[in-house]
Amino acid sequence: MRRFVPRSPTAIVLSLIAIFMSMGGAAYAATTLDNGSVRAKNLANGAVTNSKLAQGAVSPGKLNKALLSAIAAKGGSGSPGSAGSQGPQGPQGPKGDTGAQGPEGDTGDPGLQGPKGDTGATGAAGPQGASGATGATGATGATGATGTFSAADITVVYTPPPVKVPAAGEGPATEEAVCPAGDVAISGGYAAGQFVQVWSSEADPSGNGWDVTFYNEGENPDGTGPALPVQVQAICAS
């Protein structure tokens, strides 16, 4: 058998396959074939795989020395080196598309109440509303104490004589009896002759006297006559 010298990794692999196939064929031929009747050229490419080799069937002593040298020259994988220092940060990439909206979260707890704001300006007055219904009449108050009154509180005054009504045909005249200062006229009266007509008898508007208006009708048949005496009386209370 010629010596096979591998020239590349591919040749090494092919050589290993050929050896495995040869040894596998030899193991099979030991029971069914004569020694040397199966050669590498009689095996199809890929016919011999790891699963078809018995455990320990291929040992370093059974391999070609050139193949062992090539495997030794290739060497195994070394241990990983230490991690290098981190490189500088690259530029920011373009903004991605907006993702789909997530589900609504739970409602958070109410926040603390803020401070009271300043009082705003007073607004314009609104229109006046309709008048309300008249309220119920209140209860009658208690009767006051009875006042005291006596004859000593009464004063009667008269107009001083002689007071006369103007002559007939000269128009009416008003005479007044005046109460003392601070008193009030509560009533009054008069005295007059036959031909004197009384037009009014009443308290003075100021309340402190009594006024009577007289008219002389004349004592003569033709309606003429002299002035006639009269008198006015005022009843005053202090």
Structural notes for this entry:
The structure is a single chain. The protein is of the alpha+beta class and 238 residues long. It is built from two helices and seven strands; from the N terminus they run ααβββββββ. The strands form two sheets. Strands 1, 2, 4 and 7 form a four-stranded antiparallel β-sheet that branches. A three-stranded antiparallel β-sheet has the order 3-6-5, with no helix packed on it. Strand 5 (196-203) and strand 6 form a beta hairpin. The longest helix has 24 residues, at 9-32. It is rod-shaped. The chain starts with 8 loop residues before the first helix and ends with a strand.
Secondary structure: elements and pairs:
Elements (H helix, E strand, L loop, with lengths): L8 H24 L32 H10 L79 E5 L4 E3 L7 E6 L5 E9 L3 E8 L5 E8 L11 E10 L1
Antiparallel strand pairs: 1-7, 2-7, 3-6, 4-7, 5-6
How big is the Rg?
Answer: 76 Å
Structural class: alpha+beta
Stretches where pLDDT is under 50 for at least 5 consecutive residues are 4-8, 24-31
Percent helix, as a range, is: 10-25%
DSSP, total strands = 7
- What number is the mean pLDDT? 79
H-E order: HHEEEEEEE
Task: Provide a compact summary of the structure.
With 238 residues, the protein is α+β, with helices and mostly antiparallel strands.
List keywords for this structure.
alpha+beta; four-stranded antiparallel β-sheet; three-stranded antiparallel β-sheet; 7 strands
